[in-house]
Amino acid sequence: MTTTAPAPAVTVQKVGGRLGAVLTGVRLGGDLPAETVAEIRAALLEHKVVFFRGQDHLDEEQHEAFGRLLGTPVAHPTVPSADGRYSFPVDSDHGGRANQWHSDVTFVPAYPAFSILRAVVVPPYGGNTLWANTATAYARLPQPLRRLADELRAVHSNDYDYAALRPDALPEQLARFREVFTSTKFLTEHPVVRVHPETGERVLLLGNFVQRIKGLTAPDSRALFQLFQSHIERPENTVRWQWQAGDVAIWDNRATQHYGVDDSDDHERKLRRVTIDGDVPVGVDGRTSLLLSPESVPDPAFGVASGASSTSDTSGVPAAEAATA
Ligand SMILES: [Fe+2]
């Protein structure tokens, strides 16, 4: 009788009541068996953010290779990569330490489905990351507020007021931010409530790239944004992770927001992120998101830009990386 060694069992342990789980028994890389990838994906969809300790063996190439098992890696639309082709620097010295609650890259229509963040250098204290569950934030709203949210659309932009958020930022930091992050100014209209393409859950689609709620005055827009956003950020709706070098966190960027806490003073903090292509959001009424400007997402220095997908493919399987040339 011949037997093949079974893939090691993945264990899942919840770390927050509303989201977050630690997965053990996995050595991440590009050569994981399909059944293990399926288990990771299922845990990711259920728990929204999953954590792995002790993945120090990963380098830029293996990080990206693992990412390809979840979908198509995509480049940031404006910020150049770090050492690897699709590896994005999330560093203490990159663009200052500004942070706000957000989902990644929501200023383009098909913003990333997943982000995979790997800790390379962690500070001796602080520098934690928080995630919030945007599905439970919606589900627990009183019904009149859910009905209101269902009908709203919001305009997201990467050209937000960085200076207002960072009153202590140095002039050269502001100049660098404007030069790099907003080298192309994007405006995208999204539904405030998105139907998740894989789980069918309704999620709130907000965060710090929101410029205004469509059709409202600026004061009404701010008040309404704050009302819904405050339900996302409630401590009970979040999980907090204290990084160790070699940790990997993967989150469903369509069902979460996150926040990197800036409390490690001048200590170095260096993480690398690979993002996986998403699809165009669809609202409760079936209307999709719209890129308002520019006319299309420009090509990055290489590969496919995040958000460049133009179809609302709901299969959860990203299109082939056809435009890599
Ligand atoms: Fe982020």
Structural description of this entry:
The protein has 325 residues and is α+β, with helices and mostly antiparallel strands. Helix content is 21%, strand content 23%. The strands form 4 sheets. Strands 1, 2, 3, 4, 5, 6, 14 and 16 form an 8-stranded mixed β-sheet that branches. It has a 4-stranded antiparallel β-sheet with strand order 12-8-9-17. It has a 3-stranded antiparallel β-sheet with strand order 13-7-15. The protein starts with 10 loop residues before the first strand and ends in a 32-residue tail after the last strand. The structure holds fe (ii) ion (FE2). Fe (ii) ion binds next to loops. Its cofactor is Fe(2+). Pfam families: TauD (PF02668). Residues 292-325 are annotated as: Disordered. GO terms for molecular function: dioxygenase activity.
Compressed to H and E, one letter per element, the order equals EEHEHEEEEHHEHHEEEEHEEEEE
Radius of gyration: 19 Å
Low-confidence stretches: 310-325
State the secondary-structure class. alpha+beta
Biggest sheet statistics = 8 strands, mixed
How many DSSP-defined strands? 17
Shape: globular
User: How far apart, in Å, are the first and last alpha carbons?
Assistant: 48 Å
Give the fraction of residues assigned to helices: 10-25%
Give the names of the bound compounds: fe (ii) ion
Mean pLDDT, as a whole number?
88
Counted by DSSP, the helix tally is: 7
Short description:
This protein has 325 residues and is of the alpha+beta class.
Key attributes of the depicted protein:
iron; oxidoreductase; metal-binding; alpha+beta; globular; TauD/TfdA-like; four-stranded antiparallel β-sheet; TauD-like_sf; binds fe (ii) ion; 325 residues; 17 strands; eight-stranded mixed β-sheet
